[in-house]
Amino acid sequence: MDKLDLTIRDGTVATAAETTRCDIGIIGEKIVAIADHLPAGARDIDAGGRYVLPGGIDSHCHIEQLSGMGIMSADDFYSGTVSAAFGGTTTIIPFAAQHRGTSVTTTVADYHERARSKAVIDYGFHLIIGEPTDKVLNEELPAAIKDGITSFKVYMTYPKWRLEDYQLLEVLSVAQREGALVMVHAENDDMIRWIAKRLIERGHGAPKFHGVAHHALAEAEATHRVIMLSRLLSAPVLIVHVSSPEATNTIRAAQTLGAKIYAETCPQYLVLTADDMDRPGVEGAKWCCSPPLRDKAAQEAIWAGLGNGTFQVYSSDHAPYRFDETAKIPRGDQTTFKEMANGVPGIEMRLPILFSEGVLKGRLGINQFVSLTATNHARMYGLYPRKGTIAIGSDADIAIWNPEIEKRVDYSMMHDAVGYTPYEGHVYKGWPEIVISRGRIVVEGGELKAARGSGQYLARGLPGPVAVAGTIDGPARQLRNLIG
Ligand code: URP
Ligand code: ZN
Ligand code: ZN
Fold first, then answer.
1. Nearest to residue 315, comparing CAs of 468, 467, 128, 92?
2. Does CATH place domain 1-484 in 3.20.20.140?
C-alpha cells in the first residue's frame, strides 16, 4: 500500500449500515483503506473514544439567496459554508432561486458565480422554480439536469413563488420524465392569507400570530394535495420542512400505501416551540419560520417520524435573516408578522442537536443518525457513493465527534453572519472536533483550516432510491395509457 496521507486511528466508525471499531486510511481526496490496523499516515489522528462519521450533507439551506419575499440572506457562500463545517457538515445543497422575469440559465450562472470563490466545502444546487414557462419546462429544466441540478423546489405559498396546481403538475411531469426529484414547500396559501388578513385587521401583528396564520391544517391540506398530484403522475415528491403531526400522518399514510413520497424535517421542529415566538415586542421574529414552530405534541410526532422512517432526510432549512431593518424587522417595533423575513438559522446547530437529543438520549441509533444526516441525502440527491458514507473509493468527508463534550450555546460560538441563534442558552452534548473534506482538514481545534474558495461544485447524478421508495403507480399508468 502507498504511504497514507492521513490515518484516523481507533475510532468508532459508523455508517448508515454498521458500526465498527477500525482505522481509516486516506490518500489525497479519497478513502483508500478501512481495516483493524493501518500503518501510520503522514498525519495520524487518534480517534479513540470518538465517533468517526460521514461528514454531514445539508440538502436544505438558503445561502446568498434572495427569498420569496425578495430579502437577501445574511450568509454568503463563505460564512454559510464555514458555519456548516464547524457543525460537522462537509457538503451543502442550497438553492439557486429563479425569480419571475429571470431565466433559469441566468439564475444558475449567477449562483455559480456567487459560490465559486467563497465556498470552503463542496456544494451543489437545487433550483427553485419561480416561473415554469414552456421554455423553462421544455428546455431549461432538462438542460439544468444535464448540468447536475437534478432536484427542483416549488412553493405552494408566498405570492412571488406560489405555483398553481396546474403548474405543479407541469413541473412534476417534466421531473418524472427526466428522473429528477421535486421538493415541495407545502402550505395552503389561501388559508394562510385569509387568517393573516383577519389577524392584522384586529391588531394581532406580533410574531406569535405568525404561528396562528400558518395553521397546521394549511400545512396538512397542501401536503395531502401535493401527494394526490404526485400519485396522479407517479412522480416522486419530497415534502420539505415538515412541522406538524397532521402533515406527518398524511405522509406516513401515503408511504404505507406505496406512494413515492419522501419527507424532510429540521432541528427547529425538534427543540423549539411556538412559545419561543411569544416574547416582548418583536423579539419573537427571530423564531418565525414557515411552516412555524408548533407545540410539544408536534415535537413528539416529528421525533416519532424520524424514528420510524417517515422522514428520510433531516436538514437545517438554514434561512439566515438578520434581526434588523434588512430582514426581520423592516419597520422596527411596528413590524407585523406579515412583513418579517421567514426563516431561522441552523446550519451549524443541525447535527449537534440531533446527536445530543437523538443519539445520546436514545431516540435514534447512530446508524439512523448517519442515514438522516448524510447517506440518505447522498442517495436521494445523486451524490452516492462519492458522498454520504465511509467506504473505500468515497471522498474522505469525515467528522470526528466527541460524545463527551457538553456546551451551552452562545452566539459567539457560531460562525454565520446572522447575529443571533434561536438556540441561545440551550445545552447540547456531543460535538464535532475535527472535520475533513476531501482529505483536507477543514476544522480542527476550533479553527478554520480551509481556504476560501477551496470547496468544489458537485454536478449531481439523478436521484437514487432510498428506503421507502414506493411502487404504486396504478392511477398514473391508466392515465399514461390515455395521454402518454
Ligand atoms: O421560513 C422559512 N423556511 N424560510 C426559508 C424559505 C423556505 O421556504 O424554506
Ligand atoms: Zn420552504
Ligand atoms: Zn427553506
1. 92
2. yes
